[in-house]
Amino acid sequence: MSGIRVRSRKDLRHQRRRKSHSCWDHLLIAPLWPMYDVNLGTLLRTCDAVGACLAVPKLPWVPDALAKGNTLRRRTCVHWTGHDPVRWLVDQRSRPDTTVIGVELADEAIRLADLPPARNRTIAVLGHERTGIPPEAVDELDVVVEIPMIGTGASLNVAVAGSLVLYRLAGLL
């Protein structure tokens, strides 16, 4: 026997929050140009895991996608950005002590492993699945981070990339 003891569900319940966090507006993930409802559900679950909030545009299909994707069946922390994502970014960036990070492939990007945990209010912006963050939104970023890859794909899907960045910003990776 190896001596490894797998924690039971009862053990895990005692170590974690008893109820979902209230919105503390400290760490937000913002897929501002969403394409697939399943990605929003995955990001919503990751937000609960790390104590973050989700910021999304209120497109006609998004509320249903979030309701379907909320597998925890608890109240979740969602910020609605309105219909102009770039304007929302400008407004957020003007708030004191706020850092806006973009997840994008760029010459100036830092590697995910070099991204420090969030120390102030931080918004991580995710681009469109195919075209990334639009140029007019890139101008509103304070920092750009990239997730290194050695495979043949150019990038990860939004839910996976967003989850990795959230865990890093939350100081859990």
UniProtKB/TrEMBL annotation:
GO molecular function term, any single one: RNA binding
Keywords attached to this entry: Methyltransferase, Transferase
Positions of the tRNA/rRNA methyltransferase SpoU type domain: 37-167
Presence of keyword Thylakoid: no
PANTHER family: RRNA METHYLTRANSFERASE 3, RRNA METHYLTRANSFERASE 3, MITOCHONDRIAL
SUPFAM superfamilies: alpha/beta knot
InterPro entries membership: Alpha/beta_knot_MTases, rRNA_Methyltransferase, SpoU_MeTrfase, tRNA_m1G_MTases_N
Superkingdom of the source species: Bacteria
Entry keyword annotation includes Methyltransferase: yes
Listed transmembrane segments: none
GO BP, sorted A to Z: methylation; RNA processing
Official protein name in the record: TrmH family RNA methyltransferase
Gene3D superfamilies registered for this protein in UniProt: 3.40.1280.10
